[in-house]
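F.,

This is the one I mentioned.
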């Protein structure tokens, strides 16, 4: 019976966690959309109240509207006029005290991670950490630049070392290029390897190449 229970748990647990995460995301976006509708209801005539309330009770509508808003925004800013409005938007937020620090930091990180021509988190690496002889998985996030680069002798790479089983926290390191090994496994495979604490190993690579910038 214990064997059957564990086997059943292994089948249902991934599905249950996936559904739970999706439901949490839908609930979060619906709550944001509900707050927006409450603000709209406060400035609209009372005759519009029943219609707004019906929209508020449609589950998942917030997800669809957020997806549609991102899609439309992406289409609009892909042309010259849209990019001009984005520049004005950036100029507004970069001139507000306190807000500009948060906005600039988040924007730089998002531009690095999601830019189609960026290199962040596109290469899985094998490094020695936290001491020589101990190996772990890391991800290349770029190369040192600016003042930091001027204090480093030789070629270095910037890497992110995720923690297990939660890869959203970790450590940022700058290591000599010669001390890291580039892996042929994909980022998804490497993340799975980290999250599973090494129990789900990717297929072995036939060759290894030096890390690239």
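My design for it:
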């Amino acid at each position: 019976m214990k064997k059957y229970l564990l086997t059943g748990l292994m089948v249902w647990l991934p599905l249950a966690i996936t559904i739970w995460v999706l439901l949490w995301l839908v609930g979060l976006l619906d709550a944001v959309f509900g707050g927006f509708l409450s603000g709209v209801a406060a400035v609209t005539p009372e005759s519009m109240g029943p219609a707004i309330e019906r929209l508020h009770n449609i589950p998942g509508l917030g997800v669809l509207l957020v997806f549609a808003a991102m899609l439309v925004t992406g289409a609009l800013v892909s042309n010259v006029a849209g990019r001009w409005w984005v520049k004005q938007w950036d100029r507004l937020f970069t001139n507000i005290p306190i807000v500009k620090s948060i906005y600039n930091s988040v924007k730089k990180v998002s531009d690095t991670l999601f830019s189609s021509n960026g290199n962040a988190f596109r290469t899985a690496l094998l490094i020695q950490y936290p001491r020589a002889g101990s190996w772990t998985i890391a991800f290349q996030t770029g190369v040192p630049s600016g003042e930091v680069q001027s204090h480093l002798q030789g070629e270095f790479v910037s890497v992110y070392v995720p923690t297990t089983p939660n890869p959203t926290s970790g450590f940022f390191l700058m290591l000599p290029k010669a001390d890291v090994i580039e892996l042929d496994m994909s980022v998804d495979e490497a993340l799975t390897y980290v999250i599973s604490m090494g129990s789900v190993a990717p297929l072995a690579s036939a060759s290894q190449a030096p890390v690239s910038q």
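Confidence is low (pLDDT under 50) at residues 206-213.

Talk soon.
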